[in-house]
């Protein structure tokens, strides 16, 4: 049993890409490992420091995680800010993180360009906080998307540096968790490569049936194939890719044949796709609603999660303090 940790920033609602790209795999992974799933609300403060939205966002993401099948009896589910040990480790690891390397991080450079009015120190040290999330449980594996790979690499660097500096073999070099062939990448409805939360190119897990139909009907296509084997455009390829995730093999086959023989009608294709997406999303949406309204349950889940996470974190912090020479009289 390996320790696996996954974090998600609490900004915005989850979409179909999050479901097929992560959540669905987590549901399986949780039974095969010692899993920690947490909601990174401290991280959200680097970009969205809005007291009116912070908690509602955590509330949404938590309900969505649980509705997708993350089982708080099997895995440890908690909120980052319920584990202040993370903040202590972050402070200590900051003493071994160099401003130069932090300034060179791709995500920081991007924020400097895009968030010019608020280039705060939290953004600069974002990778140190993320490393603290991971190392507080000495996690061996972390499922990350492309955009987080550099952060995980930095986590390994910080762990190695700590071990070398103090002459210990304490922190592991956390590796990416690999879903292999089961990893499904869901593209956007706008012809782009990736379904995202901000681009408005995606289907949210809370979208109503009619909203899903509308969004799918508006998806980018082209004027249709004119000759057998004419090249597939991005928008159409995306529709087939999403279909592969949500529809039956027979359905996919049927439309692929229609495409190949130039008889395809994109309207029919989209109608079918919308219904098949609804089949996946509707039950999740209904569970999200139930769970979101059950404050008692959410309180119980997060308290229990915080307690379990604290057990692991307290052990690490006692050892880290000892290693660094922080002692009581
Ligand atoms: N930075 C991650 C993201 O934006 C979220 C995150 C925070 C995380 N801490 C983490 C992911 C620790 C994995 C492990 O997606």
Shape: elongated
Please mark out the parts with pLDDT under 50 across 5 or more consecutive residues, or reply none: none
The helix tally amounts to: 14
* CATH topology annotation of the largest domain: Rossmann fold
Say how many strands there are: 5
Q: Give every kind of bound small molecule, once each.
A: tryptophan
User: How is the biggest beta sheet arranged?
Assistant: 3 strands, parallel
Share of residues in strands: 5-15%
- Strands of the biggest beta sheet: in what spatial order? 1-2-3
Determine the structural class based on helices, strands and strand pairing: mainly alpha
Q: Briefly, what CATH class of the largest domain?
A: Alpha Beta
Percent range of helical residues: 55-70%
End-to-end CA span: 38 Å
Radius of gyration: 22 Å
Average pLDDT taken over every residue: 95
CATH superfamily of the largest domain: HUPs
Q: What is the CATH architecture annotation of the largest domain?
A: 3-Layer(aba) Sandwich
Number of domains: 2
* Topology as a string of helices (H) and strands (E): EHEHHEHHHHHEHEHHHHH
């Amino acid at each position: 049993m390996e320790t696996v940790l996954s974090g998600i920033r609490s900004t915005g609602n989850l979409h179909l890409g999050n479901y097929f790209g992560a959540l669905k795999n987590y549901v399986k992974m949780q039974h095969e490992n010692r899993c920690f799933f947490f909601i990174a609300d401290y991280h959200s403060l680097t970009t969205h420091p809005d007291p009116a939205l912070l908690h509602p966002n955590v509330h949404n993401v938590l309900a969505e995680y649980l509705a997708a099948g993350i089982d708080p009896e099997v895995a440890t589910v908690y909120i980052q800010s319920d584990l202040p040990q993370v903040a202590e480790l972050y402070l200590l690891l900051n003493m071994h993180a160099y401003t130069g390397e932090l300034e060179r991080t791709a995500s920081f450079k991007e924020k400097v360009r895009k968030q010019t009015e608020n280039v705060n120190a939290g953004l600069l040290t974002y990778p140190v906080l993320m490393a603290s999330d991971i190392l507080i449980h000495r996690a061996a594996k972390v499922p990350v998307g492309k955009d987080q790979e550099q952060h995980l690499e930095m986590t390994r660097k910080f762990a190695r540096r700590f071990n070398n500096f103090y002459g210990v073999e304490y922190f592991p070099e956390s590796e990416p968790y690999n879903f292999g062939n089961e990893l499904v990448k869901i593209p956007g409805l706008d012809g782009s490569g990736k379904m995202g939360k901000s681009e408005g190119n995606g289907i949210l897990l809370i979208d109503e049936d009619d909203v899903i139909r509308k969004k799918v009907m508006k998806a980018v296509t082209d004027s249709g194939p004119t000759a057998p084997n004419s090249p597939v455009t991005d928008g159409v390829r995306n529709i087939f890719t999403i279909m592969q995730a949500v529809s039956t093999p027979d359905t996919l086959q049927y439309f692929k044949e229609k495409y190949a023989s130039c008889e395809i009608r994109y309207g029919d294709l989209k109608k079918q796709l919308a219904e098949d997406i609804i089949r996946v999303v509707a039950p999740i949406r209904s569970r999200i609603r139930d769970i979101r309204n059950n404050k008692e349950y959410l309180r119980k889940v997060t308290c229990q999660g915080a307690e379990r996470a604290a057990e692991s974190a307290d052990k690490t912090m006692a050892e880290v303090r000892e290693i660094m020479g922080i002692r009581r009289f």
